[in-house]
Amino acid sequence: MHFFGYRGKNFYAEGVSVGKIAREAGTPVYIYSDRTLKRHYHAFSAAFAKVPHLICYSVKANSNVSVLGAFAGEGSGFDIVSGGELFRALKAGADPKKIVFSGVGKREDEIEYALRSRILMFNVESPQELRAIDRIAGRLKKRAGFAIRVNPDVDPKTHPYISTGLKKNKFGIEAAEAVKEYIYAKKSLKNVDAIGIDCHIGSQITQLEPFVDALKKTRELFLTLRGQGLDIKYLDMGGGLGITYDQEAPPHPSRYGEAVIEGTKGLGVTLIFEPGRSMVGNAGILVARVLYTKEGTQKNFVIVDAAMNDLARPSLYGSYHAVKAVKDAYKGAEVTADVVGPICESGDFLAKDRIIPRVKPGDYIAVMSAGAYGFSMSSNYNTRPRAAEVMVKGREYSVIRERETLKDLIRNERFVKGKAARKKKRA
Ligand code: LLP
User: Fold this and answer.
1) Tens digits of per-residue pLDDT, 262-285?
2) Ligand 1 atom 23: the closest Cα is on which residue?
3) From the centroid of its chain, how far is CA 356?
4) pLDDT in tens, 86-99
5) Residue with CA nearest ligand 1 atom 7
6) Does 233 share its domain with 309?
7) Is 344 in the active site?
8) CA 89 to CA 69: how far, in whole Å?
9) Which of 1, 249, 333, 344 is catalytic?
10) Ligand 1 centre and the CA of 17: distance in Å?
11) Cβ atoms of residues 230 and 176 within 8 Å
12) Residue ranges with strand state E in 330-427
């Protein structure tokens, strides 16, 4: 459920006309709805109201500090995967005691930053990483809470690039090896405390079954560890709950909640979740302006000013994002077209063979469900300044990230003058 929709012929984000934002802030522009973000957070949280739980919003999905701030204000914690994400979360007012640090390749400086910031725990993905954390914590005279990310070998039935819980994936440690690591850490590593078990199997999961299967395996591991005298306080179930982009019908958080509560009955743990997409995906749109339309013998193209550098998902995963006209002024006239950007690659498209209103140059389109993995995966490819981001709250909106300028694009570059420039100077 989100707060984007038509009022008469005009498309609105909450109480603000999208056309007005596009005219004033320019395009391409990402527009987020504050009310939708909060609604999603509370829908998730309500699903676990009966049990101790902590929601750690997964920063990678959308890391704008205002988005993080909106969640922090509601009591959310954060799942981070880099020092950069930790920096953003702290800037947004996050409580470090509600931060978990995931990812297979944590660097020494990042581990040190997290320890100094006193985060809740590290989700450890390899035996070597666990030893590194112990060593660094010892040097800093700090204690590190950790969970081992177990790889449950469950198929999440999603796109292969975003499946993470299969043995062939680079993530996590197999359960039998994880047990050995927990016991080894208890006996021999002096600066780490085993406080959790972590499991994340993938993203855009639209069925309950893979979650339930992973939970069964996590439960078994929990009971084994308890048998070994380990006091595990947290069960981190990761993220992964899918959203509707097109026809998908993912379980509502309340059904997911019932299944997880049932599967963890009697364990006496605090549940942690790391939702990303389900929090922000449908809380954001990408608005672009039509530059040209081109009708060919085989295909029609609508060329817009947003491209794969702004929203990589269609090119990268073949993902579907609905496309809407910002002003419904076409009297039902439609065209089947590829909606493409200006990037010099045939893989640069936002929609393929799509029936859309017969838009004209100068019109605006809204690419829906772009709040997750949209701006956060954007780049400067083809030396395109990154888009502006806007937050709508009721009848007002604010620019929460300025559009990059041409100067921004070369800010960190150093011009080592070549022969031609040196000669010119001498002359
Ligand atoms: N926790 C961990 C350890 C993760 O790796 C991820 C996502 C999440 C939580 C959040 O998952 P979510 O609730 O958003 O499904 N770029 C891809 C998605 C990559 C997901 C990576 N990990 C896309 O655009 O579909």
Assistant:
1) 999 999 999 999 999 999 999 999
2) 373
3) 28
4) 999 999 999 999 99
5) 203
6) no
7) yes
8) 8
9) 344
10) 31
11) no
12) 334-340, 349-357, 364-367, 388-393, 396-401
**pTM score, whole prediction:** 0.96
Tokens at 280, concatenated: 């922000």
The DSSP output letter for 152 is -
Distance CA 349, CA 201 (A): 29
* One domain for residues 241 and 148: yes
Number of neighbours of residue 162 by Cβ within 10 angstroms: 15
**Range of 346's domain?**
4-31+281-409
Side-by-side strand order, sheet with 10-13: 4-7, 10-13, 16-17
Give the CATH number, domain containing residue 147.
3.20.20.10
pLDDT score of 143: 98
Residues 103 and 244 in one domain: yes
**Which sign does the torsion angle of CA 346, 351, 355, 360 carry?**
negative
Counted domains in the chain: 2
Same domain, 295 and 261: no
**Ligand 1 pocket, residue 373 CB under 6 Å:** yes
Cβ-contact 221, 149 below 8 angstroms: no
Q: Please work out whether the CB of residue 211 comes within 6 Å of at least one atom of ligand 1.
A: no
Please check whether residue 421 lies inside any domain of the structure.
no
Cα–Cα distance, 122 to 129 (Å, whole number): 10
169 occurs within a structural domain:
yes
Nearest alpha carbon to residue 174 among 127, 230, 209: 127
- What is the Cα–Cα distance from 345 to 387, expressed in whole angstroms? 19
Element counts in the chain: helices (H) and strands (E): 13, 21
